[in-house]
Structures are given as structure tokens and as C-alpha cells.
Amino acid sequence: MSYALLTLWHERQRYVSGVFAVTFSAMLIALQCGLLLGLFKITSIPIDHATPELRDRVIWVGSTGAPSVDLGKPIPVAFLSRLAGREGVSAPELYIANFGNFTKPVGGTELCFLLGTRLDDDALAPADVLTPELRAALSEPFTIVVDQSDVARLKLDSPEGKPKINGKEVRVVGVVTGLRSLAAPWVFCSTHTARQLMGPLLPPDHTTYLLARADTPERAREVVAELRAAHSEDMTAYVAQDFSYSSREYWLLRTKAGVAIGYAALLGLVVGAVITYQTLKTATEASAREFAILLALGIPRWRIQLMVLQQSFWVAVIGMGLAYPICVALRGVARMGGADVDLRWEVLAGTAAVTTLMCAVAGILALRGVRKIEPMSLLR
Q1: Closest alpha carbon to 239 in 264, 206, 217, 207
Q2: Does the keyword rRNA-binding feature in the UniProt annotation (predicted)?
Q3: Model-level pTM?
Q4: Number of separate domains in the chain
Q5: Are the CB atoms for 112 and 102 separated by under 8 Å?
Q6: CA–CA separation, 285 vs 370, rounded Å?
Q7: By the 8 A CB rule, do 69 and 243 touch?
């Protein structure tokens, strides 16, 4: 065991506040970032739940400058010809994704987001949570499926009245779970129903997206590059996983919610850095006599400075070790409340890197006290 770790354990009362500060800071950063990612995963649900096993091979074609799946504008169905017939690419299919005005059975309105797709077994766009029974039920005109979490919000649990979308009566034939919405509830239906509900808002010779499947991920990226180079003036193309990332990035970086949560994580970092610096600074000053003895015995000053930096490193390691099980436990609590905290390895690795850097900076600042220690101080 290193000398720095031994002194840290022996003087643990001096460092306990710093360890707890690092624990709090790492926990706050990980949870805030995980919550942010979990929150904005919702924005790409139509992409992520459409044949998720083919996310690296499905090609999405939409309007120019659509950074997120909910911001696509109508494009001519004639664009099918730009995608059809290409070697290694399946026949494209239509996907209607538009906002609609949902009238609750008991009165009042909500904004909803219509997702109209083909319902065949080999279709690319239907959500993977739609069972064969739900797909069969959705084949009837003016039938819809919503997520269980939106039933109360849309007042669909009321026995009175009937819901409408854009003024047209619809019938709920089932619910799914796990597709919670961020703003407007997702409403799943067939392409035919979506077109009927949109009415004049979507011209009959237009759609929102075209989807096709490439034989390989490499072929998908080739086709996307070719489409972008040839038709960038009136449409754009994405591989599904890139479109998913673009949708999340848009909401993460261009909305106030992402800025607010990121700011809270930054505050946790600052608080942790200040308390850690103060703890190391106080501990260094309290150890001035011991350090002066070491200097008098001929121990180089750089060795003492190195020990202080090692102590800051171990404070970071112990603090992060305590933070991890707390984060996992709090993620479980969040899930019980319906919130998703995405603690993927990138989040944990980033938190570890930032926390270690924070403790290293705090240790470097605390070195100023070591430079002022002289062996002569023992005689005073």
C-alpha cells in the first residue's frame, strides 16, 4: 500500500469531508448526465423502436434540414424513385409523422404526434412493441394505439365521449408500454388512418419520410452519401442510428431543458471542486510540521508534493467508489417513478475522468502550501 494511501487512512478524519464532497459531486454529475440522456432518448423513440436490430442499415429520407424526427416536413411521394431500384436497397415505404390536435373524450385538447406506418410483418417503421394483435387491430380505419402512460393525460379512461384527432373520431384499440412521450403523446396508427386524420394538412401525394433497408451497414452509408450529394437541395438522408443521434443532440443542445440540466451538473462539479480543494489545503497545512521533518531528514520537496497529488488521486478514487452504488440505487428509485436514468459506460467513464481531473486541480492548488514549508519552522 502506498505511503500516500496510508497517511490518508491514518488522517482520515481530515479527509472525510473531501471524500464526501467528491462522492456528492460525482453522484450529481453522473445522475444529471444520465437523466439528461434518459430524457432525450424519448425524442428518438420513433427511430429507435422501428426495427431496432437494423438501426445501422435502415435509411431515412426526409425534408432538408430536419435535425429531429419530429421536425420533418412533407416531401413528395415521387421521391420514391430516387431510392427505388438501387442495388442492395429494399423497396422504400412511406412513413407519416406529424403533429395532430387531439380532442379528449371529456373535452379539452392536447397536441399529439401521429406515427402512421405500414403494418405488415416485414415493415420497417412500426414500433417493435406493437404485437401482431395490435397491428391487426390497427388495420381498421381510424383506430389508434397509445402508450399506457398517456391514457390518463388524454382522458381515455373516461367512459364518456369519444376522442378525436383533427376533428375526426378515432377508436383506441390498445395500449403499449415503455414509449413515454416528452411533450406530445405518440399516437400509433396505419398509414391510411394517418393520412385520413391529417386531411388537407398533408397533401395526398406527400409523406413525411421514406424508409428503406440496405443489405449491409456499409451499403446504407454509401446510399446516404449518394442521396445527399445528388439531392441536397430538397431532401436529406440518414442512417437510422445517425438520425437517432441527431434527434437527441438537437434536443440536448438547442433546448433550454438541456442547458438547465447541464448547468446543474456544472454546479455539482464546482461545489465538489471547492470543497475538495479546501479539504486538501487544510490537511496540507495541518501536516506542515510532519512535512518540515521530512524535509529536514533530506526527503526532496518534490516527493512530498507528489504525495499530496497522490492523496488527491485516492480521494477521487474513494469518492467515486462510494458514489457508484448510490447512483445505481437512485436510478432504481427514479425508474419506480417512471424516469429513465441512462448510466451507460460513457457517462460513468466521463464522470470518472472529470472527477479525477477536478481532484488533480485541487491537489495542484494545495501544493502552494507545501512550497512555503521550511525545516527552520521546527525551531520556532
Answers
A1: 217
A2: no
A3: 0.73
A4: 2
A5: yes
A6: 8
A7: yes
